[in-house]
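note to self: dont lose this again. the chain is below, predicted strucutre after it. 335 aa total, dont forget to put it in the shared folder this time
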Amino acid sequence: MTADVCVVGAGPAGAAAAIALARTGARVVLIGSAKAPPAGTLELLSGHARHCLDILGLTGTVAARAPVCAATISRWGGADFAERAGILEPAGPGWVVDRHWLNPVFLTAARAAGVRHLPAQVTGAVRDGLGWTLHCADGAAVRRITAPRVIVASGRTGRVAARFGLPRTTGHRMVAMTAWLPGDPLSLGHRLLVDHGPGGWWYALGDTQGTSVVHCTDADLLRPGTWRAAARDVGWAETLRPARLPALRAAPTGRAVAATGPGVTLAGDAALAVDPLSGQGLTLALETALAAARDERGYGDWLAERTRAHARQSRAVYGLAGDTREFWRRRAVPG
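---
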């Protein structure tokens, strides 16, 4: 199989890049699993993402299904919670999205744009004078795809990016402990709650179906009973009784040592995985995807500036917490 561009990773970033490239007339193959995260995987899609959604023609689709995030309630460096209305955000309010339905929205749009989707895994990549040859495992079958250009949007782990000779650095090896509860047990009403404790920070976010409550900490700080102890520290979380144990997922921060190489470009979390605290992860993934598809030559400089900006933001926000314990001390210097 041949293509003008192969995009590796079928999440929102990969699908966004594939859509943008297909609209230029390129023959695009999108490689990656169509499996979506489980229902209740709630995230904030910030108002800054509106211009990306407009470009992709998906603003109406997302807005019709996702509640607007009305406000942020935070307790950061003080004893009391403060509320900021979403309409006061520089780009306006964002949306509460569930990745369970959002990922298929992007993938469906990619197919409608003429992108060929191959639900396979890249097991090898070889560079020659004509471009890249990708070896892909599709169940029991193994396929070869050749293309002069590849965009890798395969997520935070960096394993796939390394196959193309583009290693990445890891900042903080964070984990997110997530509990989903039906309804609105915290009476948030589509507001984002952010709080901090001695060993990490919390956020809670609800849509029309339920509420995700998440505790973020570093992997090496996990102990038996971490969730219960951290919940006691903030008080409000101690009152919650999730039906199942919180799910644990890796959420490491990191960046590509180099985001571009001969015929290959990294996008999404593969290029820059920011701290979930920024609330910009999904938005940044879409921005990097569209930038990589639009301007291959200028992409590296653009991404370097975005990386520096997010590092400054992260240090400033963590510094405002005013806590010197281990989790916070690590973030007093660039990570």
